[in-house]
Amino acid sequence: MDLLWSEGRLLVAGPDTRPYVPEGPPRSWTGVRFFPGTAPSLLGVPAHELRDLRVDLADLWPAARVRRLGDRVESAHDAATALEDIALDRAARATAPDPLLHRLVRRLDEGCPVSATAAELGVGTRTLHRRCLVAFGYGPKTLARILRLQRALALARAGTPYAESALRAGYADQSHLSREVRELTGMPLGELLGGG
């Protein structure tokens, strides 16, 4: 999930389960991406309520407060730093995210299967699914897919050949990675990585 600034507006990008392409003419965007599972406690809204949505922050928080924050970003020398400061200020006042979720993200990011991760964490798969909906906006299997894709893209961006990136991230082969990239991002692998 992201806190975004564009053309004088503060927006929240909820968790996506499909590609998102902004409509209208190109715009300048600045944003802060929250660590998986942390945004709901900072924003005060379960992630599943924002799944596949872009909403004005004023729809979630009092309008006067959002106006003050918008003025703060607008007058800042660097909008990205101002957004980060806003997120850090909010984090200092919010309740800490569920520590189990941080361990879940770490284990899934290491490629551990969902069922093994649930057993390791001492929770049932249904309980884990419910907690994931609140924290991430989707279930643990979707989270695992997204984390695996991020691992593969990081490897490819670092210069690892696509086929090796796919295997090291946990895909069967490069074509499996390519299908997943297209399904989750709406773009071919080479285009997403700027190579084609």
In CATH, the homologous superfamily of the largest domain goes by the name Homeodomain-like
- The total number of structural domains is 2
Strand order of the largest sheet: 3-1-2-4
Order of helices and strands: EEEHEHHHHHHHHH
Weakly predicted, low-confidence segments = none
Query: Class of the largest domain in CATH?
Result: Mainly Alpha
Number of E strands: 4
**Global mean pLDDT:** 93
**CATH topology-level name of the largest domain:** Arc Repressor Mutant, subunit A
**From the alpha-carbon coordinates, what is the Rg to the nearest angstrom?**
18 Å
Q: Into which percentage range does the β-strand content fall?
A: 5-15%
Q: Shape from CA axes?
A: globular
Work out the helicity level. Answer: 40-55%
Distance between the termini: 28 Å
Overall structural class, as computed from helix and strand content, comes to alpha+beta
Describe the biggest sheet? Answer: 4 strands, antiparallel
CATH architecture grouping of the largest domain: Orthogonal Bundle
Summed up, the helix count is 10
Protein name: AraC family transcriptional regulator
Pfam family, one: HTH_18
GO molecular function, one term: DNA-binding transcription factor activity
Keywords: DNA-binding, Transcription, Transcription regulation
